[in-house]
Amino acid sequence: MGRYFRTLRRFWGMALASEVEYRFNLLIELVAVVANLASSLFVLSLFFGDGHRLGGWSWPAALVVLGVHQLLDGLTITLLQPNLTRIVSHVQEGTLDFVLLKPIDSQFWLSCRTISPWGLPPMLAGLAVIGWAAQRAGAPADPTTLVIAGLMLLCSAVILYSLWFLIAASSIWFVKIWNATEVLRTLLTAGRYPISAYPPGLRLLLTVVLPIAFLTSVPAEAILGRATASWLVASGALALMCLLISRWFWRFALRSYTSASS
Amino acid sequence: MRRGLRIARVLLSTQYALMLEYRAEIALWSLSGVVPLLMLGLWSQSEAGQALGLGATGLSRYFLAAFVVRQFTVVWVIHAFEEDALQGRLSPLLLQPLQPLWRYVAAHLAEQLTRLPFLAAIVAVVMLVHPQAAWWPSPRALLLTALFTWLGFAVNFLLQTSITMLCFWSERASALDRLLFFPYLALSGLLAPLEAFPPGVRSLALATPFAYQVAIPARLLAGEPVAIGPALAVLGAWLALLLPLCLILWRAGVRRYGAMGA
User: Fold this and answer.
1) How far apart are CA A44 and CA B111, in angstroms?
2) Distance between CA atoms of B182 and B188, rounded to whole angstroms?
3) Is B262 inside any structural domain?
4) Which residue of A has its CA nearest to B47?
5) Cβ of A199 and B29 within 8 Å?
6) Which residues of B touch A40 (CB under 8 A)?
């Protein structure tokens, strides 16, 4: 275990050092965070003119959902995108062989090899929105709520990781998969709005088939202190299941991996 | 003139053949455009959507039209060009007696052609689920939609190409593309019909190129009223501004271009 932490520190230190080379990007990324937040706030606000509500959610409560989405978006930019989109080129160029030969778990290596600092601004923005909106919505700030909210956020992060990993790992068969992650990102924008705002058919689709409800709405409910036990258990079980599936799927995928030239 | 036609025919047919190779990828791209259909679900359910006065049919038609129109105004030149410039593939293109940007125009047009079958399939599915939303636009509406979609594509292409030219100065110009994406999301009408905007924002959106990527052609296709004269004036002004800008940046950029490794 200690070995994994030491490796992680080396990996990330190196990644940060190389990213700081592109200082011009820092400016762009900061402007992008502000622009992103402003545009999603604007679109969300269109649903709340004249005291309207969205799927039974008030404006501050819906803002919590948006904040959770921002937080997950930051996580995607920091960890998921830079690592998992690289599996494709490992398969294409045959360098996956070298990864598999290393004396370390290959899923861990592929998922944590590098880190991008550009996800931090969206994450901080997301946390700020959540904090402000939760207070406005009158969410209880007692330790139990905070712990449950933290656990739910962790679950949603695990689910998101597993979805990304499943798609990225399928590049073993379909060499060009870059677009599929882009489709996933687009579909995930559905998570900017509370799940109860969608019509029943779509709601079912976004809960059961593509578990977007568990990514943003369920943690938001937990933050607002109105989560029910059954949703909490379902979320935890789903996270565990997704993680196990991603684990199993990787082993299964490796069985049909035949290296680049064979 | 005849030479121009021959070049256009050869460019289009080769690019079409190339795009057909990537049809699975293009199917995924078409799928990633379903956001307007998700938004249709939200707007048709919400109190704010009912207050717009478009009616259920009006909303369905608008968002379905937005979905269709958007497939023909999407521009991705910056990503293709950045890769070509960084990897030095631009150098042989510069030697040919043809402005290399035409090649990218042809690639976009060919890709739109490849999208057609997937587009038809998705529209057919929506029609099956929502038969009451089906309509047949008048020939005049179809012609105007085609004209405005094409003009919108032209403006978008020039706008993106102007930013693309920064690839000559920076290695990561595609990051700038994201800065255009957020105002596009907010103002294009992809996520909300123009009726939902506050009046000030609506006039702002109509002065930017963004509303002409989705909202204006979609309204024409859905049979909603559009002020044709002012729309043409704004598009003409943007074309007159962006075309020279693009060419100036291209000249300056090529002079700076030293190929990779030089």
Assistant:
1) 33
2) 10
3) no
4) A52
5) no
6) 185
Alpha carbons A86 and B246: distance in angstroms, whole number: 33
Residue B87 lies in a domain: yes
Q: Count CB atoms within 10 A of the CB of residue A256.
A: 8
Is residue A261's pLDDT more than 60?
no
Q: What is the pLDDT of residue B72?
A: 92
Query: Would the CB atoms of A53 and B47 count as touching at under 8 Å?
Result: yes
Q: Whole-prediction pTM value? A: 0.87
In whole angstroms, what is the distance from residue A183 CA to residue A180 CA? 5
Asked if B178 lies within 8 A of A176 by C-beta distance, the reply is no
- Expressed as residue numbers, the domain containing B99 is 2-256
Nearest to B159 by CA among B40, B63, B228, B75: B75
In a domain, B261, yes or no: no
Total domains present in chain B: 1
Which chain A residue has the Cα nearest residue B187? A39
pLDDT digits (tens, 9 = 90+) for B90-103: 888 888 888 888 88
Burial of B125 (0-12, 13-18, 19+ CB in 10 A): exposed
Task: Output the six-digit token pair for B229.
Answer: 């004269």
